[in-house]
Amino acid sequence: MEKYKAEMLDGQASLSLAIYEYFSIADVSETENELYAQYLASFKAWKNLLDYGIQTGEFNLVDIRPVFDLIIFSYQGVRMYSKLMPINEEIPQGIIEQIRKIIVKE
């Protein structure tokens, strides 16, 4: 999550806008493209991590797909907005704290 936070704060290193523009082209967006394949691969990795944490008792029993979507779309949204407006550290920090509250057992 700390890596995600650093990336969310680094709008200059983001290719998000170019990626969104490319994948919004009708011919590309109507197929199972590389972006969708990356989404599925990310889900698999996060599912394995969350399943492991749930099995070991470190994580709450959560509905993995919506939690994954919350993480990935929050991250991507902040990355995109960081190209359009200033993003201070409070935004990604707040998102990360809320995600931790959902996932990690106290």
What do you see in this structure?
Helix content is 71%, strand content 0%. It has 106 residues and is mostly helical. The mean pLDDT is 82. It is flat and about 40 Å long. The protein is built from 6 helices and no strands.
CA-based shape:
flat
- Report the major sheet: none
The share of residues in extended strands comes to under 5%
| Number of helices in the DSSP assignment | 6
Annotation, overall tally of beta strands: 0
Give the low-pLDDT segments: none
Integer average pLDDT = 82
Structural class: mainly alpha
User: How far apart are the first and last residues' alpha carbons, in Å?
Assistant: 17 Å
Q: How many whole angstroms does the radius of gyration measure?
A: 15 Å
**Helical content band:** over 70%
One letter per element, helices H and strands E, the order comes to HHHHHH
Any chance you could write out the topology, listing elements then pairs?
Blueprint (H helix, E strand, L loop, with lengths): L1 H8 L6 H8 L2 H4 L4 H23 L7 H18 L8 H14 L3
Helix pairs in contact: 1-5, 4-5, 5-6
Summarize the structure.
The protein has 106 residues and is mainly alpha-helical. It has helices at residues 2-9, 16-23, 26-29, 34-56, 64-81, 90-103. The longest helix has 23 residues, at 34-56.
